[in-house]
Amino acid sequence: MNKFLLKDALEKGYAVGAFNFGSLEILKSIISAATLQNTPVIAQISESALEFMGKKYLKKIIKVARRNAQIPISFHFDHGKSFESVKTAIKMGCDSVMIDASMLPFEDNIAITKRVVDYAHKKGVYVEAELGSLAGIEDDIKVEDKNSCYTDPMQAQEFVKRTNVDSLAIAIGTKHGAYKFSGSAKLRFDILEQIEQAIPNTPLVLHGASGVDEEDVKKLLDLGVDITGARGVSEDILKKVSKTNICKINGDTDIRISYLLGILSHIRANKTNIDYRQYLGAGMAEVTKLVVKKFDIYGSVNMANND
Ligand code: G3H
Ligand code: 13P
Ligand code: ZN
């Protein structure tokens, strides 16, 4: 797949679900969900997931998955922190890469993003960059709440013009990880609107968009996992977001929660089982169920092969 899925989403007013995977089991669960919903999907790999799975294995897995998939699947490198890591991802077969230099000063972010764009475009690979900072944990970099800053719409316009980047991750109030909000979830739709006006043809990306289902948090506690106080982005907000110029919605935390819940529930209910395929299979089924639901929320059901 080397088609820019986000342009279609921008034109038709839906969002493509982008889900992180760090194992074959998670990737297969995501593909199953996308196939069931007949939707395009983005499967993404972080730097640490790449290290965990191993470059050589991953390269083959991407090739096989792409060949066998019945829906448009795009492989994306998530939160690339350097030109070198992005180059590795391109060699591995990713269709698009993110260069995340959002923690650098504006001019430095522009310089590295432009360097990546110039390199990637020659290889037919699309580039996502980030402007503004999400609070919370991005890979191994911690951005304290107090230092987080929303994306400036005028800076976004200048950034896109000078870098020729294909999509832009923006900061409008989400956070990575399970603990996004202490009170009720609030996103800055006013800033989003200004960004849409400033760069109407650029697909936008929302990171830190997991929902962190309250019931799942309670069930996990009962199973011995304590993430009390975890809170994510509500379904209603995500539905609204999907209809805007946000064309890619990233999720990882929800997958981790569902997988764990499926595995632990299976272990508790099957005390004599020691076959990992049984409990991992139960985890995979939970992940598929979760991702199926996400496509409903994002409005991408039956959007595969729709042109
Ligand atoms: O946005 C970051 C993702 O959740 C990746 O996390 O580096 O632990 O794989 P990870
Ligand atoms: P969550 O932590 O909300 O799942 O966000 C993941 C993400 O943005 C990956 O890039
Ligand atoms: Zn992210």
Explain what you see.
With 307 residues, the chain is an alpha/beta fold. Helices cover 48% and strands 16% of the residues. The chain contains twelve helices and ten strands. The protein has helices spanning 5-12, 24-37, 47-53, 55-68, 83-92, 106-122, 153-163, 189-198, 214-222, 235-242, 253-269, 276-298, and strands at residues 16-20, 41-46, 73-80, 96-99, 126-131, 136-138, 141-143, 167-170, 204-206, 246-251. The strands form two sheets. An eight-stranded parallel barrel has the order 1-2-3-4-5-8-9-10, surrounded by nine helices. Helix 2 (24-37) crosses helix 12, helix 5 packs parallel to helix 6 and helix 11 (253-269) runs antiparallel to helix 12 (276-298). The longest helix is centred in the C-terminal third of the chain and has 23 residues, at 276-298. The radius of gyration is 19 Å and the shape is globular. The model is unreliable at 137-141 (pLDDT under 50).
Q: Tell me which ligands are bound.
A: glyceraldehyde-3-phosphate, 1,3-dihydroxyacetonephosphate, zinc ion
Number of separate helices: 12
Helicity level:
40-55%
What is the percentage of strand-forming residues? 15-25%
Estimate the mean pLDDT confidence: 94
Shape: globular
Structural class: alpha/beta
